[in-house]
Amino acid sequence: MSPFAVQLVNLFAAAMLLLAFAMLSQRRILALIHLYALQGLALSASTVTVAWATGQDHLYYSAAITFTLKVLLLPWILHRLIRRLSVKWDVETLINIPTMMLVGIVLVVFSFNLALPISEFSRSIARGTLGIALACVLLSFLMMITRSKAVPQVIGFLSMENGLFFAATSATYGMPMVVELGIALDVLVGMVILGVFLFQIREQFDSLDIHHLEKLKED
Amino acid sequence: MDPLAILLAVPLAGGFSLWALGERDSAPEINAAFSFATFMAAAWLTEDVISTGPITAFHEQFFVDPLNVFLVALTAFVAFTTALFSRPYMRTEREHGRMTPARLRLYHSMYQLFTFTMLLALTTNNMGILWVAMEAATLTTVLLVSVYRTAASLEAAWKYFILCGVGIAQALFGTILLYFAAERVLGPQGDALLWTHLDVVKHQLEPAIMSLSFVFLLVGYGTKVGLVPLHNWLPDAHAEGPTPISAVLSGLLLNVALYSVIRCKVLAEGALDSRFAGNMMMGFGLVSTLAAAFFLSRQRDIKRMFAYSSIEHMGLMTFAFGMGGPIANFAGLLHMTVHSLVKSAIFFAVGHAAQKAGTQVMEDIRGLLRVSPRVGWGLMIGTLAILGMPPFGVFASEFLILTTAMREHAWATPLLLLALGVAFAAILRRVQPMVFGETTLRRLPYQPALAPVFIHLGLGLMLGLYIPPYLAAWYQQAAKLLG
Amino acid sequence: MNVEGVFAQLTAAVVALVLGPLLTGWVNQWRAWLQNRTAPPLTQPFRTLHKLFWKESVMAHEASALYRLAPYVVFSCMLLASMIIPTLSTNLPLAPAADAIALVGLFALARLFISLAAMDVGTAFGSLGARREMLVGFLAEPAFLMVVFTASLITDSTSLATIVSSLSHRSLAILPSLAFAGVAFTMVSLAENARVPVDNPATHLELTMIHEALVLEYSGRHLALLEWAASLKLFAYSCAGLALFFPWGVAEANDRTALALALPVLVAKLAAGGIALAVIETILAKMRIFRVPEFLATAFLLGVLALLVHLLLGA
Amino acid sequence: MTTTFPALDGVLAVVAAWFAIGVAGIAVPRSLRFVALFLFPLSALLGIVLAGFALAALPGAAQSAILPIGLPGLPFHERLDALSAFFLAVLGLAGAGVSIFAGGYFRAGEGTAPGLMCLQYHVFLAGMAMVLLADDAYAFMVSWELMALASFFLVTTNHRIPEIQRAGFLYLLIAHIGAIGILLCFGVLQANTGDYTFANMRAQHLPALRASAAFLLALFGFGAKAGILPLHVWLPEAHPAAPSPVSALMSGVMLKTAIYGLARVTFDLLGSPLWWWGVVALALGLATALFGAVFAAAQVDMKRLLAYSSIENMGLVVVAFGLAIVFRAYGMPALAALALMAMLYHCLNHAVFKSLLFLGTGSVLHATQERSLGKLGGLLRRMPWVAWTALVGVIAAAALPPSNGFVSEWLLLQGFLFTGGLPNPYLRMLVPIFAAGVVLVSALAGYVMVKFFGVIFLGRPREEKLAEAHDAGFLERLGLAWLTAGCVLLGVFPVAVMEIVDPGATLLLGHGLAQGGRIGDWLVLAPVSAERASYSPFAMLAVALAVVGLVFVLVRRVYHGRVRRAPPWDCGYPLQTARMQDTAEGFGQPIRQIFEPLFRMKRELPTAFDTAPRYKVTIEDPMWHGIYEPIARATEAFSRIVGYLQRGRIAIYLLYSFLTLVALLFLAQA
Q1: Could you give the CA distance from residue A62 to residue A46 in angstroms, rounded to a whole number?
Q2: Which residue in B323, B406, D322, D518 could disulfide with D282, CB within 3.0 to 4.6 Å?
Q3: CB of A144 within 8 Å of any CB in chain D?
Q4: How many C-beta neighbours within 10 Å does residue C69 have?
Q5: How far is CA B106 from CA A193, B95, B112, B147, D618, in A?
Q6: Using a CB cutoff of 8 Å and minimum separation of 24, what contacts does D608-613 make?
Q7: How many CB pairs below 8 Å do chains A and B form together?
Q8: CB contact, 8 Å: C119 with chain D?
Q9: How far is D550 from D537, CA to CA, in rounded Å?
Q10: What is the reported pLDDT for B311?
Q11: Residue B444, SS3?
Q12: Is the peptide bond before D230 cis (omega within 30 degrees of 0)?
């Protein structure tokens, strides 16, 4: 396959990592959603590239699913949610942004080192992608830890899913179709349920601040 | 007509039809009927396996082997008895105004779907589908946990969702890595995730990848097993959901999660030919057992307490499977079975007790023997059984686990002794005054369903004194298969 | 069990019954003399017994059968004891029936009965006496056994006959262990026989008395039996002591001449012992009841010490 | 008796029958008459039958059977050899007496329905029998815990009372922890073979370290049941809580199963003990015995007093056990047999007389509703049956001739007197000290028993209501008489008994007491040689009785038999009341004073100006303060620390999983 494709995939990988960092540091929820959509875009683009480069047709389907789900559907749902729930800001993060950045960088280094021995075995076109995927996962994990409102947590959760998909498509040429379909279904349903939840939480505590969700504990 | 198909189809259909039927008075009975049909199908399937041996179906996408056949039967059975139990229970809840018809509708359909997802997870041969099923199980149960719509139940459900969602995501990464390792051996077709195939070639899988993959899988599915320190969702979800759900969570879902962990462990062990995976599980198991024991000693909410006891027992099983070897694995499987029987029985009794007292706070539940002896004895005997008092099956497995540990990992036995002792003291100290003494309780509008309690306890008793040959044979084959 | 045996056994019994009260009288005489009093005659105890036997026995309303039974039991226990201890001869048919340990048990049995009897009527002094008696007993009994153990470790036997014969056959040598044991034994027998410094047989000052408090309610023939039993006990202890520490002169099996000779020897030894006892009682002062445990604990420790010394020095 | 005699089948049949009786009882939970007048006497009969089978099996060779229940590959192995036969005989004989008594004892108002109690009671009996029969670890543990469970429910019969609940909790907790210890002991014994049959364990030869570990675990596990220091705390709580027949059974028989387990593991499964095990057992046993005796002397609750006295007796048994180990380790089988015989004999004796005494307290309890010694007294005249039988028990418990208690003590002391031959100089020094201790203990036992009997049955009643106390009923008398007869016969004919028991010792040591000739002739007990030591209770008793009779007759012949009744003299003090007698506290006072450091006493002394002065002393077990409370506090503290794992913040929870993941990834990479 052509080195051009490799460069392309690497580019998208880099974009995803960048976006992950951006989400980590982004406070405004609306912007967060946009970033999420962009990440989905990069993901589907890379999937298409891989599909085109290796001629694996089922990857086109998975790209299509990804696009519709993560670029169109979920961002739209999220938009409506925050408009209905009127949450704009996620003011205070639990750790301040620069520290989070530093931690994030450490994570990236860690995950690259982790992925390095494995990527030798990869027949795949882009060796580094696995590390990047792992980094994305861990970064969104970090984001979930540090956000104090429900919606950003959800977005973190979703972007973690992105990282996983990226690993699936770029490191291995996509999972079996049936599995991907199942995963997509789960994500969709999960999203819907989350939406319902957010409303219920809101009507219970009339806020989406998860500090209200700290009653159940060992005292 | 294939029993496997029926087994999976019935609960799926049940879920949708119960939703479609909407808010009816007869919904509980219909629910029970569907569960019964599922149980029948499971029985048929079991009978098939007994006569013909392990089977695979649908282009090997599904398979039933000694390891999962009894889990399938167990799951269907407990799901059925729980449906029986939930009939009067849920009606009473409605009387007490905690359930509305709409919620009951949701409850019943989700109950069936939940059964379906568990059966799917158990019978699928595809590690990917396994993941999908586990995630689906999480989703359905989240709705069930939050069904009361109270602040506490919402919080519990939210934590459950987030923690398990994240955990399951790790498991997905593990699955991807597994596929990544597998396709280099089996080629990039759909069957590269089929467990049977993987099991054949497990020795050729790349160790470096497999070790990472197992870590992700363990953390992922381990979250659902409730291993400390990934357990935090478990007590909340058990305490705040409706009691039938606590019963199936403890009795079934944890089992299924552990089942997926040990499936992965088999592969990892094969690839790594080191005790890495085993040791990791032993570590988790030990930590969980100990921590849970000490958690137990400070509980005030009865369901929360038994949730921690589930963590303790899951830890014990994880420890057993971690040790490996025919005896330990045998013990682990036996413990799985008996624990889910006894623990669900306990939750049934607890449910009625809590309804009588109108609270789950143990200080306010007193003297069950006086107001309704059968509930009292059910709770007492169940507790003693779960605490490892012979002649119940829990003791049998603990006997094997401890003695095996004593000879292979003597260093661990003092910790186990400590944990078991503390747990015993903690639980008995709480349960005794609830059962004995003068009472504070009232009668219930509906006659509680106690048949399930005593059926379960009876089976638990039987497994302590006599294990049917088929079951024993399965256990032994499964133990061999787990290595 | 041959004729000599039976004969020896019966003589032992008779001798005990006769010499017991006489010994008491003898000691009382010497105490009187040592205190510059005119002494009662030697046979005074017999006169007392005779008088008491004639008197009718006055009994509390609540007194139960146990109360009436006790004197007989105590008496027979003491008589049995003094029939077991080789006083004149070691060839006693009853000897195998009870060894030294059983002998101690016998004394304990008597103590149990008399204490219970004292509690039976339910008066303040009775139970007080019983308590004190048991207090003395549970400390004295172990001490006594320690003494016995020393002797039996030396002679490899607990059977009194064997002890005596083997002790009497060894050449005269000072055994430090036996010396310790001797002191311990003396203290024990002072306590057990209610003598000064532990108790004063002549006292009737209620708060200090032990033995008198026990028999306070008794009268008439029951009292007589108890008194006789007391003197038998003194006799038995003395003989035991003599048997353990001065075993010479006790007749061997089936030896008529020795048997004939043994009696005077015994009387002489008893006389000497009685004088010693009287002297002790005169020069010592009675101690407070709370000091008694210390006194007896000392005896007990001396007994243990005797054992250790024997094991240490092999002597 | 030939070995072809199917004793084992018979025993199993009896066990099954006991289970059946239990089920029959639960079938008619509320009909007291049926249960009391039919089922309990029936089970007493079965007890005698059981004893018969056991005695028949004693001399014979071991018989074994396999039941179709248990784990796959590990069905219940049952085996009846001399040792288990002996203990089964104990169970049968004591159990018969207790059961017949229980028939008359249990009333409707006991808290649990009679039928249910019947079930628990007979499961308890059957469980004990199964423990003695078990021949593999699993069967043993199952029966062991079954026994514990049944007795737990029996102890909590009267569960309305919170103290009783606490007692039951404490009992089951310690029992369970001990059971886990035993389980681990078996884990060591099976030595990596994965075969849990006793036969296999016998075949294994463990290295010294593992063997010692097994022994210590066994000592811990069985000690928890036998009430060895410091695991004795449940005894004084559980025994007063339980209905008296249950206390009798627990104290009389259940404690013995622990001794059985110790002997089984040490001599049979481990085979060749090390000498220092014996020293450990001696020290622990003596400490326990002294502790029990001293505390018994200070008790004011009659059943508590008996419980402590049981602790004392178990201590003595363990001392004998230790002595046997020492002799065995130094290759002196004959002396080991002597010590072991002392142990077995004392087990038998204690079973009989302690059951007797507990049953006596039961009757007193029913007659007066009173457990506190301070409110009893003068019952000898109200309840002669109970009193006179109790007197025999008291003499036995005080280890006085010619009772059975004395025989075993005599044997034990004889055993001590042979320690001069031990090669180890330190032991030679040490053992006499132990002997002194044992003697002290038995003397104290006398003190305790005088207190027990004197305060309950003698003197004047301390309360008015005692006036209408009634004597025991027919069935109760039957049980008391049965056990009393046991006390007397076991005391008067020791030689015959020991020759029956001897195979037990032979089995464990390969060397019995009767080796080469008999244990003395039928009359005179001379375990080694007549010169060495001999004891003939029969002769003593005969002579004593003769003397009593003779004196009685003579006095009446020569003098007269006149008696005049009058108010008590008491130094002429006119106004005496029953309150002036010694109270239980008063009677225990000297002991409290002497052993003051042992006690934790709280005194409430009246001031000089009290209008209604009260004097109160409460004694608590120092072990609570010394061991158990610290443990409880430590657990509490640790669980508080663990609690910090769960502070409710979801972010923190996520952090846990995150860190776990990262840490494990590190591990995986390394």
Answers
A1: 11
A2: D322
A3: yes
A4: 16
A5: 13, 18, 10, 8, 62
A6: none
A7: 133
A8: yes
A9: 19
A10: 95
A11: coil
A12: yes
Question: How many angstroms separate the Cα of D396 from the Cα of each of A172, A188, C105?
Answer: 86, 83, 12
* pLDDT tens track for B379-429: 999 999 999 888 899 999 999 999 888 878 888 888 998 999 999 999 999
Contact D658 A148 (CB under 8 A): no
Q: Are D341 and D527 in contact (CB under 8 A)?
A: yes
- Give residue D242's region: left, alpha or beta (phi > 0; psi -120 to 50): beta
Read off the pLDDT of residues D148-188 as tens digits, 9 standing for 90 and up. 999 999 998 888 888 888 899 999 999 999 999 999 999 88
Query: Which amino acid is located at B440 in the chain?
Result: T
Within its chain, how far is the Cα of D353 from the centroid?
A: 10
B240–A216 C-beta distance less than 8 A: yes
**Contact residues, chain A, for B193 at CB < 8 Å:** 175-176, 179
**Distances in Å between the alpha carbon of D536 and those of D105, D257, D340, D396?**
37, 30, 20, 16
Cis, peptide link before residue B229, omega less than 30° from 0: yes
Which positions in chain D touch C217 (Cβ < 8 Å)? 568-570
Tokens of C159: 């059977």
Q: Which residues contact D449 (CB under 8 A, 6 or more apart)?
A: C112, D309, D394, D395, D397, D398
Among the ranges given (A53-57, B289-293, B392-396, D519-523), the one the predictor scored with the smallest mean pLDDT: D519-523
Residues in chain C: 315
Burial class (CB in 10 A: 0-12, 13-18, 19+), C206: middle
Band (D1; pLDDT cuts 50, 70, 90): very low
CA-wise closest residue to C310 among C151, C100, C148: C151
Q: Which residues, given as ranges, of chain C have pLDDT below 70?
A: 1, 171-173, 203-207, 253-255, 314-315
- The DSSP string of A67-99 is IIIIIIIHHHHHHHHHHHHT--B----SS-HHH
Nearest by Cα to D110 from D160, D63, D151: D160
Residue-level pLDDT at D2: 45
Mutate to test the interface with C, among D453, D534, D575, D579 (most CBs of C within 10 A): D534
What average pLDDT does the segment D52-79 reach? 87
Say which amino acid occupies D619.
I
Entry pTM: 0.91
| Mean pLDDT score across all residues of chain D | 88
**Share above pLDDT 90 across residues of chain D, in percent, rounded to a whole number:** 46
Q: What is the rounded distance in angstroms from the CA atom of residue C211 to the CA atom of residue C133? A: 7
Chain D contact probe: residue of C50, C52, C112 with most D CBs at under 10 A: C112
Note whether B167 and D657 are within 8 A (CB).
Answer: yes
Q: Binning pLDDT at 50, 70 and 90, where does residue D396 land?
A: very high
Residue D478 neighbours by CB under 8 Å, 6+ apart:
D100, D101, D104
Quote ipTM for the complex. 0.89
Which residue is listed with tokens 């007392």? C48
- D250, D239 in Cβ contact below 8 A? yes
Q: Which residue has the higher pLDDT, C125 or B285?
A: B285
DSSP track, D313-380? HHHHHHHHHHHHHHHHHTT-HHHHHHHHHHHHHHHHHHHHHHHHHHHHHHHHHHHHS--BGGG---HH
Query: Nearest CA of chain B to the CA of A204: how many Å?
Result: 6
d(CA C133, CA C233): 15
pLDDT digit string (tens) for C165-179?
A: 888 877 666 778 888
Residue written as token pair 């007194």: C63
Distance CA D409, CA D406 (A): 5
